[in-house]
Amino acid sequence: MPPFKLPSHFPSPLYSFDKNPLSNQGISLGRRLFFDPILSKDSSIACGSCHHPSQAFADTGKRFSRGIAGQFTKRNAPGLFNLLWQREFFADGGVRHFELIPLAPLVNRQEMQGDLQELLGRLNKNTSYKQQFSQVFDTDSLQSKHLLYALAQFMGSLISATSRYDQYVQKKLPLSDIEQQGLTVFKQKCSTCHQISNQLFTDLSYRNIGLDSVLLDVGRYNITERKEDKGKFKVPSLRNVLLTPPYMHDGRFSTIDEVLTHYTKGVKHTPTLDKGLRNNTGSPGIALSLDERRAIKAFLHTLTDTAFIRKHHK
């Protein structure tokens, strides 16, 4: 029996475990590593310190998370789920390979400050870990790829596809009137970026949504160095969005109501502002009435996956 089942109403994942054969033991090892502070320089911070299962693996309530010695991270910690369907990772898309996701926080000076060879030395000296790695990867020589493969198996198992909306798509239950109204408005005014047809609620693109007239964080530009990418960040999935405040790459909005207000009357013009964020008059913003915003919020509640939370919050 496979360790986990891919949702039938989702597209095919973009990542294959061909070179990293999945197993229940591998996922268990990855989970142990994810929540073990042994991977940080001073053994004080774990991956799970900033990615909590009860919060869809985000760091709810914090604009920025704290790393080694209380240092703040550069950006808001995102939720972690459905990573198998993404091409690039982090808000600026700075990592392009699924297995390399953990490497960035592991060695980041503001986060875990780890040295890969030092971490491997620790794990090799730990009899319990050495036994687990040997069982999963059939090796007595623990290498960095084994560490990253184990974490990848766990993170790949984080699949959120059992929300009320998913049950609606599968014709297992209806939406309420206001939720249905919200879905209709969402399709009309939000789904260009937060794509519904792929079930991911993101088109995986990078966009400038007019947060600042003077850019404090140039986002995707840091990676591409193309001027047209200044101020652009990856469109996040909206699954479990009500569980993961605050919002935006810098956590500036505390509530989803503030986010909707931004799109209605807070969008600021910059040269790279997304073309979709201009209303019929050509000025920045999306025309949303108060009733439409309430309906969208009601619909977004249907994207909360309580079964996913219960499964991983042990």
Give a structural overview.
Keywords: Heme, Iron, Metal-binding, Oxidoreductase, Periplasm, Signal. This protein has 11 helices and 2 strands, in the order H-H-H-H-H-H-H-E-H-E-H-H-H. The chain is globular. The protein folds into 2 domains: 24-156, Cytochrome c-like domain (Cytochrome Bc1 Complex, Chain D, domain 2), CATH 1.10.760.10; 164-305, Cytochrome Bc1 Complex, Chain D, domain 2 (Orthogonal Bundle), CATH 1.10.760.10. The protein is mostly helical.
Short description:
The protein is mainly alpha-helical and 314 residues long. The protein has helices at residues 24-34, 103-107, 116-125, 127-137, 144-156, 164-169, 177-189, 221-224, 256-266, 290-301, 306-312; strands spanning 206-207, 233-234. Helix content is 33%, strand content 1%.
Secondary structure: elements and pairs:
Elements: H1 24-34, H2 103-107, H3 116-125, H4 127-137, H5 144-156, H6 164-169, H7 177-189, E1 206-207, H8 221-224, E2 233-234, H9 256-266, H10 290-301, H11 306-312
Helix pairs in contact: 1-5, 7-10
Mean pLDDT: 96
Radius of gyration: 20 Å
CATH architecture of the largest domain: Orthogonal Bundle
User: Structural class of the helices, strands and pairings?
Assistant: mainly alpha
- The helix tally amounts to 11
Report the span from N to C terminus.
23 Å
- How large a portion of the residues is in β-strands, by DSSP E? under 5%
The percent of residues in helical segments reads 25-40%
Q: Would you give the CATH topology of the largest domain?
A: Cytochrome Bc1 Complex, Chain D, domain 2
Largest sheet: 2 strands, antiparallel
Number of domains: 2
Neighbour order of strands in the largest sheet? 1-2
Report the principal-axis shape.
Answer: globular
CATH superfamily of the largest domain: Cytochrome c-like domain
Binding site for heme c 2: 190, 193-194
Main location: periplasm
Cofactor: heme
Binding site for heme c 1: 47, 50-51
